[in-house]
Amino acid sequence: SYGSISKEAHETLAIAMNRLGAKSNTGEGGEDVDRLLDPERRSSIKQVASGRFGVTSLYLTEADDIQIKLAQG
């Protein structure tokens, strides 16, 4: 998620995974709308955690898969 790695690193990883036909995960920080709607830069797995950071109906409908984080630690 944003904060654990930079925005640029997160986007670069998503681009690489998409080109390889693999999947990347947004983490609990959500995803900027410009990336969310760009097939090359988007993460296919959207994470929903207890804080619901960045979670909107658009975010959820653009997911290939949804990961629900129930607990941490």
From TrEMBL:
MF GO annotations: 3 iron, 4 sulfur cluster binding; glutamate synthase activity; metal ion binding
Organism classification: Bacteria, Bacillati, Actinomycetota, Actinomycetes, Micrococcales
Name assigned to this protein: Glutamate synthase domain-containing protein
Glutamate synthase domain boundaries: 1-73
Keywords: 3Fe-4S, Amino-acid biosynthesis, Flavoprotein, FMN, Glutamate biosynthesis, Glutamine amidotransferase, Iron, Iron-sulfur, Metal-binding, Oxidoreductase
Pathway: Amino-acid biosynthesis
Gene3D superfamilies according to UniProt: Aldolase class I
Similarity comment: Belongs to the glutamate synthase family.
Cofactor: FMN; [3Fe-4S] cluster
GO biological process assignments: ammonia assimilation cycle; glutamate biosynthetic process
Organism of derivation: Microbacterium ginsengisoli
